[in-house]
Design goal:
The chain is an alpha+beta fold.
């Protein structure tokens, strides 16, 4: 099941990375957190996304759940000619998404492997608009794993 929780990402240690690279790392992690099904798969998905963005040397060292927050340690992110060893990031839990997002998520999970199309379902128009983001991210994660 896709996560329907919101997280705020903060660097604990940044090494020698510049602001642009730090921003790119946060974008990759936020995309993964918004689209991954469960904590156990987060490491593999982030690993693939980092490799796609920063090359094969950028890898996840560990992902640990701490209460409702997540601690992520990565290494090998390249900044210009410099290879930085480790960056530690904490994803702080902020709350769950709106009820509309929760409903759209449930619909997306139901229609993903169903022969019934979204247009055929008797659901509110506003929920149909939001379903797309959950179907697209689910398809992206399925391709990565």
């Amino acid at each position: 099941m896709q996560k329907v929780q919101k997280y705020v990402l903060e660097f604990v240690t940044i090494g020698g990375l510049d602001e642009t690279t730090l921003s790119e790392v946060l974008k990759v992690l936020q995309t993964a957190l918004d689209s991954v099904y469960e904590l156990e798969r987060l490491s593999a998905v982030v690993d693939q996304m980092l490799a796609d963005r920063f090359g094969a040397t950028a890898v996840v060292v560990m992902v640990v759940g701490m209460r409702r927050s997540i601690f992520i340690c990565i290494r090998g992110v390249r900044c210009g000619m410099r290879w930085d060893e480790y960056q530690n990031i904490i994803a702080k839990f902020q709350g769950v998404r709106s009820l509309q997002d929760l409903a759209a998520h449930q619909v997306a999970c139901s229609i993903r492997n169903s022969p019934v199309s979204l247009e055929q379902l008797p659901i509110p128009r506003l929920t149909k608009k939001v379903v797309g983001k959950f179907v697209e991210t689910a398809n992206m994660i399925t391709r990565l794993t």
